[in-house]
Amino acid sequence: MNPKVSIIVPNYNYARFLDMRMESVLSQTYQDFELILLDDASSDDSKIVLEKYKDNPHVTALVINEKNTGNPFMQWRKGIEMARGEYIWIAESDDCADKTLLERAVEQLDKNKNAVLCFFGSHLIDQNGNLMEEDFDDWSKPLFSSVGNADVFDGHFYISHYLIWNNSIYNASGTVFRRDAVTDGVWNECLAYKYCGDWFFWSKMALKGKVIIIRDKLNYFRQHVKSTTVQSANNGRGLVESMQVIKENVKYVSFYKRMVRIGLLYRDAHRNLLRGLENISFNKEYFHLYGYIRGYLAHIMERFNKLFLPAFSWTISMKKDHLKENN
To answer: What is the pLDDT of residue 288?
Structure first.
């Protein structure tokens, strides 16, 4: 009999975090799961740590690559293809979780049959496991229900009001999703990304059904210098990849909103150019994607929109967009 959930732990050089991750998985209050352990040719002691768990009855696979793939989403794909569960949890090896995360996710996905994924908020922790003051969850809006409750969004609505602005499903470790919502075709494009593949992945998945947001911080998202999130921000490549994702997501919004969002990319690119991030030619990337006429028009429309933002209701901003009613 197949397990209800397949938990995939992809790892690369995070031996120092692995025991905490594994214990947070194995101590979950919901226990109907298999555990797939993947290592992408780590050069630290990850193999030694992982092999301690290979005889655990939950562990159905331990795969250690001989050569590093260079792309974290290759490991996602491998794990999902091996999975047998109805639901999948990609539990990144440097993060950890509250013991009730899986139970709460399964409860909501069983209840909402049309939902394709369930996402929790996160406490941010540093490399030593200390809580950080920064908060990625913006739950101050009346759109959300009371703390601890689940909000269910139409998938297209969630893309056009959330995922066009940023990757609001910002950590895979806080997400449980349906295996059958993942199609083979998504990997051809997803694997072209190194930093924003998850944003692209969640956007494609949202097209297939509803999105559940649980207003509870049951995930612990680690921030450290080697994390993909930090590297993406520091080297500027994340911004370049975000241009590609946004180009896909703006297909589902009005012309005016589309142009304003593209224009914001132009602004952000120039702000990062001033920081001297790897001398990346943001202008070249921007105009290659959107063309010179469309690119400059979007920049002008974004400036026009900002000028009239305080005075007119028809103007657009992420803050305003998040107050829209979920249909």
So the answer is: 81
User: Which residue's entry shows tokens 């005075």?
Assistant: 311
Residue 289 near residue 108 (C-beta atoms within 8 A): no
Contact 222, 94 (CB under 8 A): yes
What pLDDT does residue 271 have?
Answer: 66
Selection from 262, 193, 255, 196 nearest residue 229 by Cα: 196
Contact in structure between 119 and 219 (CB atoms under 8 Å):
no
DSSP code string of 251-271 = GGS-HHHHHHHHHHHHHHHHH
Which residues make Cβ contacts (< 8 Å) with residue 216, sequence separation at least 6? 104, 120, 121, 147, 148
Query: Which residue ranges make up each domain of the chain?
Result: 5-230, 254-321
> Rounded to two decimals, what is the model's pTM?
0.90
Task: Domain 5-230: give its CATH architecture.
Answer: Alpha-Beta Complex (3.90)
Please report how the helices 237-249 and 197-206 are oriented relative to each other, as an axis angle in degrees rounded to 10.
Answer: 10
Other Cβ atoms within 10 Å of 61 Cβ, number: 16
Query: 298: exposed, middle or buried (C-beta count within 10 Å: 0-12, 13-18, 19+)?
Result: buried
